[in-house]
Design brief:
By secondary structure, the chain is α+β, with helices and mostly antiparallel strands. Helix 10 packs across helix 11, helix 14 packs parallel to helix 15 and helix 18 runs parallel beside helix 19. The termini are far apart. Its cofactor is Mo-molybdopterin; [2Fe-2S] cluster; FAD; Mo-molybdopterin cytosine dinucleotide.
Length: 780
């Protein structure tokens, strides 16, 4: 970072590295934050609803929509025949995801038509009146059935290999094989999917969409309407949560709204109910990991082979990159001398699974922690001891190369774990728990300390770019627009802090405006934890351009050198004179200085060759560690999270308050994934956990009773990111691995810790109780 351009001054309110509240926090609390459903409805607005199939896999023999069309208030019924362009909303370009299916149904709930009516209630009621005749086909909804039916892959798998594990597995002192099932997860954003399209003249259409990827919505709508992108504007002020569920899944709703709006020349809104949203949108991928590992008497891994099979759904969506990233993180924080990792993205007759916070990384990392746990129980050692023995080493140690051949050059995991181990008094507490479990017959305790190492960057190199547009007006106020989207994570606030810091003005001088494809084109999704990295640097580039012009202007006008032009808090010093910032900008305007700039940034150094499984897909790594203590009732399987301590690395934090909030939220969401959130399809292929009554996210009362979160304030990114910060969106999610490991230890106590409990996830009370009973029998 150019220190001459960015000089942090405590005298301004809201520079980088200062704790500042989220720009919309007070609006969230008061209920005044405007979401798409709060926008005043245009005159003549119509409402849409999906006509959903009630088969998991079938041919459509005939469909009678006469009753649907005759329902009072219905204006139009759309089928595949009404699409003027391409009947496809797929993200990966494989053209395997029709907007409206025509002849074949591949999951229960798939859209076979859409109803447009004067009211939302009329549209939804009419959509249930269709008469459809099906010819049922064989179907499967889970990984085991997919494998037994020799299901095709929705996209080619990937192999990462280093060394010769096929021969080295026989050469270590110990060897074991095992498997683990890792459950999926519903996003459960507070605001369900929604899109509103307003037709304009000629080919124009404006779409308001709750999406993390406005440019993809623009492209998809263009393809469906057979319209160029320049005629389509997509706007996003904020989302009520996203978590990856709004990276691609908003495509269908935006495309249907735009299709109906242009066909009928009236504004159209689609807002599915929660149960519809959960039935027709993708989720976190379920995984089944099978592994074969060889290790020595100290627990140090010598060789490992692992296969990660995933339930991907009926189409590819983002399953390729998701299962790729699972392999990228199947090492967790550990060095594998000889390794082979394989992904198997399986087709199932379920809704196509998609991005979710961590993007496959949590599944890969959890699998690695299970390997460590198995070794620990096999050797009768503390799992933390095995973790430490397998950590990546320092650069040049010979233990610094990942399975994808990227060198780990910024490794601080040993220090993070050591500091947390000391600060949370792990060793003394574990000893006390071992004593407690000997005397307590029913309640058993567990404790675990687990690490996090998470790679930051899109693995699709082209996505690692961003743009920003900055205007400085004559009165000194500043308008900021960039390609990132705000879903509650504080991105807008952080990038505004970059602008305030750059110009050395108070943050209330910076106006944060809605993300729109009309201002910044060709944006990447706000995903992969890269929002602040990419958009912050793009905004910084725009500030740099404007400041260079201002410095040149001032030097010429006042006859001083460029070095004598210094931006001070809310003023500019030119030689011996200090000028208030608004007055200085007014002078620049009169001097015909361009006060607007389009900034741009692309992440350096990264490259990736998927065919060879080699490259540098990540710009840097974010690190962290968590220690969790639990209590388990062995008669019922119920449990409490007693305490969690977290130490997390965010580099030099752009906004410590927001970052701590992201860490807390990520941990609790990860805890839900591992404990309470269970997806279940019945024998007819219907998702039965499709509402809050049947799908259980964590409550506030489920959080750890003692919850200590601290930033590793000594950490600073070794790469020149914005303010030397690090990404914070996804890495904290995996801190929750300590919860599962602690529950495992509590269960293992009933068999004197001699047997690995092999808990699958989610570790619901039922699963824990079954593990306890299984271990009791094994002990006998």
């Amino acid at each position: 970072m150019d220190k001459a351009v960015f000089t942090t001054a405590a005298a301004i309110n809201g520079p980088m590295h200062q704790s500042l509240r989220h720009d919309s926090a007070h609006k969230h609390v008061a209920g005044s934050a405007e979401y798409i459903d709060d926008i005043p409805e245009p005159s003549g607005l119509l409402h849409g609803a999906l006509g959903m199939a009630d088969r998991a896999h079938a041919e459509i023999v005939s469909i009678d929509l006469s009753a649907v069309k005759a329902y009072p208030g219905v204006v139009a019924v759309l089928t595949a025949n009404d699409i003027p362009g391409v009947n496809d909303v797929s993200s990966g370009g494989r053209h395997d995801e029709p907007l409206i299916t025509k002849d074949k149904v591949e999951f229960h709930g798939q859209t076979i038509f859409a109803v447009i009516a004067e009211s939302r209630d009329a549209a939804r009621k009419a959509a249930r009146l269709a008469k459809v005749d099906y010819r049922d086909l064989p179907f499967w909804t889970d990984i085991d059935a997919a494998i037994s039916n020799e299901a095709p892959l929705v996209t080619p798998g990937m192999v990462l290999k280093r060394g010769t594990p096929e021969t080295e597995l026989d050469k270590a002192e110990h060897r074991l094989q095992s498997s683990m099932r890792i459950g999926g997860q519903e996003h459960f954003y507070l605001e369900s999917h929604i899109a509103m399209a307003i037709p304009g003249e000629d080919e124009d259409v404006t779409v308001w969409s709750s999406t993390q990827h406005p440019s993809e919505i623009q492209h998809i709508v263009g393809h469906v309407l057979n319209t160029p992108s320049h005629a389509i504007t997509v706007n996003v002020r904020r989302m009520g949560g996203g978590f990856g569920g709004k990276e691609t899944q908003g495509n269908q709703f935006a495309a249907l709204a735009a299709l109906a709006a242009k066909k009928l020349n009236r504004a159209v809104k689609f807002r599915p109910d929660r149960d519809e949203d959960m039935s027709v949108t993708g989720k976190r991928h379920d995984f089944k990991m099978d592994f074969d590992v060889a290790f020595d008497g100290a627990g140090r891994i010598h060789a490992i082979e692992a296969k990660f099979a995933a339930r991907c759904g009926y189409s590819s969506d983002l399953s390729g990159p998701v299962t790729d990233r699972a392999l990228f993180h199947a090492d967790s924080s550990y060095f594998y001398p000889h390794v082979k990792l394989t992904s198997q993205p399986l087709k199932t007759h379920t809704v196509s699974n998609t991005a979710y916070r961590g993007f496959g990384g949590p599944q890969g990392m959890l699998g690695a922690e299970r390997v460590i746990e198995e070794i620990a129980y096999a050797l009768d050692k503390d799992p933390l001891e095995i973790r430490k023995a397998n950590f990546y080493g320092e650069t040049g140690s010979g233990r610094d190369l990942t399975p994808y051949h990227q060198q780990v050059t910024d490794n601080i995991i040993a220090r993070v774990v050591e500091e947390l181990e000391t600060s949370c008094d792990y060793q003394a507490r574990r000893a006390a728990i071992l004593t407690f479990n000997k005397t307590s017959a029913v309640i058993k305790k567990g404790i675990a300390l687990t690490p996090v190492k998470f790679g930051i960057s899109f693995t699709m190199t082209a996505y690692n770019q961003a743009g920003a547009l900055v205007h400085v007006y004559q009165d000194g106020s500043i308008h900021l627009n960039h390609g990132g989207t705000e879903m509650g994570q504080g991105l807008y606030t952080k990038v505004a802090q970059v602008i305030a810091d750059g110009f050395q003005v108070d943050i209330d001088k910076v106006k944060i405006t809605a993300t729109t494809t009309g201002k910044v084109p060709n944006t990447s999704a706000t995903a992969a934890s890269s929002g602040s990295d990419l958009n912050g640097m793009a905004a910084y580039d725009a500030v740099r351009q404007i400041k260079e012009r201002l410095v040149a202007f001032a030097a010429e006008k006042w006859g001083v050198s460029a070095a004598e032009v210094v931006f001070l808090p809310n003023r500019v010093k030119v030689g011996g004179e200090e000028i208030p910032f608004p007055d200085f900008i007014r002078q620049a305007y009169l001097g015909r200085v361009q006060l607007s700039a389009a900034g741009f940034y692309k992440t350096p150094k990264i490259h990736w060759n998927r065919e060879t499984g080699r490259g540098t897909p990540f710009y840097y790594y974010a690190y962290g560690a968590s220690c969790t203590e639990v209590s388990v009732d062995t008669l019922t399987g119920e449990y409490l999270i007693d305490r969690t301590d977290i130490l997390h690395d965010v580099g030099k934090s752009l906004n410590p308050a927001i970052d701590i909030g992201q860490i807390e939220g990520g941990f609790v969401q990860g805890m839900g994934w591992l404990t309470t959130e269970e997806l279940w399809w019945d024998g007819k292929g219907r998702l039965r956990t499709h509402a809050p009554s049947t799908y259980k996210i964590p409550l506030a009362s489920d959080r750890p009773k003692i919850f200590n979160v601290k930033l590793a304030d000594w950490a600073e990114n070794t790469e020149p990111t914005i303010g030397r910060s690090k990404a914070v969106g996804e890495p904290p999610f995996m801190l929750a691995n300590s919860v599962l490991e602690a529950l495992s230890m509590a269960a293992a106590s009933v068999a004197d810790y001699r047997i690995c409990p092999r808990l699958d996830t989610p570790a619901t009370p039922e699963r824990i109780l079954m593990a306890v009973e299984r271990l009791k029998e094994a002990k006998l």
